[in-house]
Amino acid sequence: MSLDPKIAARLKRNADGLVPAITQQYDTGEVLMLAWMNDEALHLTLTTGKATYWSRSRQELWVKGATSGNVQHVKSVALDCDGDTVLVKVDQVGGACHTGDHTCFDADRLEIAIG
Question: Over 90: is that where the pLDDT of 107 sits?
C-alpha cells in the first residue's frame, strides 16, 4: 500500500522528499516535537494510528516509542494550507523528546529582548 494519490499530490516536499511534521498533544495543544515524514511515514501514520517518522540521521523509518515505550497515539493529522507541513495531534505516553523530556522544547528557552 502507498499514500493516497490525492494526499501525495498536495504535499510539497523538500529536496530529500520530506515534509516537516509538527507533533502536538491533542487535548492541550502543547507542541511536543518536530520530526520529518516521507510519503511512507505519512501513509503508515494514517493507516496504523502510530506516529511514524523518517529519521534523517539513520535514514530509516521509525515508529515513535517502538524502542523507548514513549508512544504517540495519533488522534488527527492535517496538512497546512500550502501542503508543506503536517500537523500530527497525538496522545503522548511518556516523554516525546529523545532526551526523555516531556517536550523537545522544555530545555532551552531563549530570552526575548522587548522594547
Answer: no
